[in-house]
Amino acid sequence: MSALAEPGNGAPIFKAVSSSARQLFQLLNCIRFSPKAQVQISNEGLRFSVEESRVMQGIVFLDKALFTTFNCTLPEAEPPEDDQDQDPVAPDLPIFTISLAALLETLQIFGAADAAGSRFSKSDNDGYGSNIRRDRPNAFSNQALGAAGICRLSYYGVGEPFSIILEESGVTTTCNLNTYEPESPEEIPLDRSAIQVKIIMQARWLFDAVAELSSTSPSRLDITAFPSAPYLSLSASGHLGSATVEFSKGRELLETFTVAEKWTQSYKFDMVKAAADAMRLASKVSFRGDEQGVLSMQFMVEVEGGSISFVDFRLVPFIREEDDEDDEDEYEESQESESNQDQN
């Protein structure tokens, strides 16, 4: 990785200011299933990515629109030494690894995690909270007290720490996180030219379904999409039994539903459950699955100020077993039988 800044020159290559550490915490908290995160800085924003055993990946992109100020000074493209007629070589984007756990701990120093950031953040059994309309600032909120807080981020270059400065009510906290060379794991590929299923639905329906299925303590989640009824089926089985949740086709449940033929894959249940925070926080989720079984769950999150951010999860499926293939053959035979009966 090429040097992006000379240490000690006093000019950071990246600095940004956010008026709310809470929204940064909420978005990054969605991918906390891994203790470390790879950070990439560009002129468009910050990209945080985590992965687990090369079978699950979580990505959060903090768009520059989330910050009140955003400055990124990247090196200019250098002309090639051999051939002056070639286009200039684009410099490497700043990329490094930090402790995600330490970053989240820093962002919630002033109670960002305790603030009600979404309609799902407080329990319905909270007797005190139930008397307060959700998402409305109360007499002790930061807005009422005039203590909105400021979060400053900066990065000076290779080998330098990732700096976070939090200011609230006259109290300033500075945290410098060590940065490390990225491991450069390969991104889980989603073949956009071979998408077999595309579904858009409200995220809370998915959250309720996963919560219902988790009661059986399952190890595997089977996702099946049909071109006809029952359309979308989520099935799980465990030591305590089995359960299935089916979604009918209709804009009140499935806003977008595109399936050419039956598509079924199996995933580790804990990996899907790891996206629960994104399910609670998001308003919508987009399901996409390719012919290899790679699943993309992209969550649309509405943040303070009316901006929209996206949290993306990609999962690698289990290897299909012979029993699963037999079940699929039985389904296809039943479909052919029904078609023949209709023709007769």
UniProtKB/TrEMBL annotation:
UniProt KW Nuclease keyword: no
Give the transmembrane region(s).
none
Q: Which GO terms describe its biological process?
A: DNA repair; meiotic G2/MI DNA replication checkpoint signaling; mitotic DNA replication checkpoint signaling; mitotic G2 DNA damage checkpoint signaling; mitotic intra-S DNA damage checkpoint signaling; telomere maintenance
Q: Which GO terms describe its cellular component?
A: checkpoint clamp complex; chromosome, telomeric repeat region; cytoplasm; site of double-strand break
**What CDD domains is this protein classified in?**
PCNA (cd00577)
Q: Where is this region: Disordered?
A: 321-344
Q: Which InterPro entries match?
A: DNA_clamp_sf (IPR046938), Rad1_Rec1_Rad17 (IPR003021)
Query: What Pfam family does this protein match (any one)?
Result: Rad1
Write the record's keywords in alphabetical order, separated by commas: DNA damage, DNA repair, Nucleus
* PANTHER family from the UniProt entry: CELL CYCLE CHECKPOINT PROTEIN RAD1 (PTHR10870)
Sequence similarity:
Belongs to the rad1 family.
Q: What is this protein called in UniProt?
A: DNA clamp
